[in-house]
Amino acid sequence: MIDLTMNEEQLKRTVERARERNIIIPTFEQMKDPEKIPAKIKERLKKVGLWDVDPVNLFRITLACESIAILPEGMSRERFDWLRTVAGEVIATPGSESNVKEIFDKTWELKRTRTDVVAFNQFEEFGNYLWHHEVTGSAIEEGFRLVARPGDEFFGVTFTSGSGGTLAAGDHMKKLFPKSKIAVGEALQCPTLLQNGFGAHRIEGIGDKHVPWIHNVKNTDMVIDVDDADSMALIRLCNEPAGHAFLKSRGVPVELIGKLPLMGISSAANVIMAIKMAKYYELTGKDVIFTVFTDSMEMYGSRLREMEEEYGDYSEVDAAVDFNRSILGLGTDWMKELTYYDRKTIHNLKYYTWIEQQERELEELNAQWYDADSYWGSIPPLAARIDEKIRTFNSMTGLL
Ligand SMILES: Cc1ncc(COP(=O)(O)O)c(C=O)c1O
């Protein structure tokens, strides 16, 4: 799981490097509550852009070390362009979005052939689980308290799964609202959770023909498959001028229309999941579902242009069709409320990826299921211990 053992020699070198490069590490406490970020850093952040490769952007959560990014060649051009600006090296592996096995193979090759490489595999890294449990989870908790009216109930969360990290926010919310539900989403074109299926799809960032090691399957209540055609329709509707005109004619406030580009393809899938969940459980105005926008349209301009080439200019008729089919017309098809054994069936899939291929221990796989409470429950308390180490580290660099 998360190993807090310190290698003193390595620590000395890392402190030295952090000092040289002016790297201060944010604590979980500060990420949960930005008010706690030191004034000096807040001042510096004002002068640093969101996408600048500056260590102070760690406080906005980004990268600041030599890195190799590995991703399938079929991902969007913008994603490659952006990664080339932040990663030292970018390796494209064969296939599309859902070809993650090829990434794992490349990672093993690097681990075996290069001594200078440390692999952070988001699919098995419990720091990913912990971060979303603490930070995304707290943000949702705060968001609910802000929007909830008297009598409202927190019904649940809908998150598509890529690495399974975001789903940890659902674990956090379920502790606060034990009756609430966690839905995991995937593309209908790659229905691994729903049907043990496979396939290529267009919802970048999710659904990889396996179950991530850090997905707490036993705590997951529902699988919702999203037709990638609905996600693609939504991003056209929400970003093309004719789509905006149509939405305006339907009474969507201009201010909200201006914010729609904040929703990328998988974010649209998350919203579609929320609508399907609401229809399935026949929810009313007092039930609140939360989801997240995993990324914005910044990465997908080329996808809009590709659709324009394929289907022609986007008209208000197209917008009306998409609005009625991919929002109002969404139904309760391709989704499943999970029984105990449905969950176990999904959990069992982990065996093939993680035990057979990725050298994980069978004992730990069983602990995830049979000792679920203590296994998953032991992770969140580590945040405070990690924060202590971060504070010590920051004081060793003397930068604060
Ligand atoms: C665009 C996008 N959407 C969704 C996801 C899925 O989130 P998670 O990895 O937390 O399951 C990712 C993450 O990798 C992503 O990059």
Search tags:
single chain, 400 residues, alpha/beta, five-stranded mixed sheet, binds pyridoxal-5'-phosphate
The CATH C-level class name of the largest domain: Alpha Beta
Oligomer: single chain
CATH architecture of the largest domain: 3-Layer(aba) Sandwich
Strand order of the largest sheet: 6-3-4-5-7
Question: Could you give the order of the helices and strands?
Answer: HHHEHEHHEHEHEHHHHEHHEHHHH
The CATH topology of the largest domain is given as: Rossmann fold
Structural class: alpha/beta
- Averaged pLDDT, please? 94
Number of domains: 2
User: Mind describing the biggest β-sheet?
Assistant: 5 strands, mixed
State the helicity in percent bands.
40-55%
Q: Which ligands does the model contain, each kind named once?
A: pyridoxal-5'-phosphate
Separate helix tally: 18
Q: How would you sum up the global shape?
A: globular
Radius of gyration: 22 Å
Number of strands: 7
What distance separates the N and C termini?
30 Å
| Beta-strand content estimate | 5-15%
Q: List unreliable stretches of 5+ residues.
A: none
